[in-house]
Request: fold
Amino acid sequence: MMIPHFLVARLDAFLHNQLQGAKGLPLYDFSKPMDEAALASPDSISWRVFRNPLSLFIGGISAVLMELAEPRVRTGVWDHTTFRTDPLKRMRRTGLAAMVTVYGARTTSEEMIAHVGRMHARISGLTPDGVPYRADDPELLRWVHTTALFGFLEAYHRFVAPLSAGDRDRFVSEGVDAASLYGVLEPPDCEGDVWRIFGQMEPELESSEIISEFLAIISRLPLFPLQFRPLSGLMIRAAVEILPPGIREILGLQTAFNLSPMGNRLLRFLGTQIDQFQLNSSPSAQACVRVGLPADYLRPRK
Reply:
């Protein structure tokens, strides 16, 4: 069974409007300036992983769940962003920042990351328990970076294409340069570092009513075209499914969010199918053209 071509075109247009045509978002042209490299190379694992919108949706939700488990990060996100008042805009901004970090020309990426750093420097406060936090705290920045790495990596591995242990380590190491620009000290350099950081942070993590509120918000957002929206519930379950077991237990997201074997197979089918799509207006395709490669350079060859 193949997904009809008209749905591919609709998904391409929809995603373009979400990230590059939405009101209030900065405009980035990933095809310029010509011949300027990105932070990662076109043959990187990162360029493959961030190309697939289904695994990005699943991995992004999983990452945010882990971020919200840390009380200082949770308070900063909930008190100083538009997640509650305009969650769609917040998700679009986060998605666009990820695309610029991975596919943007190096000068563009560095400028955007510097702007994010200046924004973080203005955010501070106290958690409900009176613990002080700063959004530019290197420990918190490392937690956000690590959870994002794991979420995107694991979602792609589970629902698009299995990655070898070497490729998983390579993906993590490819994020070191960007992490350093964001202000992360001692970012993970291999998958073992990711699990070590999880172990260090687990005693600090806790559940919260905000977790349930976040999941309810995400379930209502039109992050995919109408034809794909019935799958949103499955993708949210998948995001919970890939959480590290210890963190999932801390958040209290056990059996109620289990992904059925049939749901797992369906998402794996969609993930592999979407990976074959050529989304010509996507940041990945534009970035390929910018560095002198065919727009379909990243499309898997059968």
Q: What stands out?
A: The two ends are 16 Å apart (CA to CA).
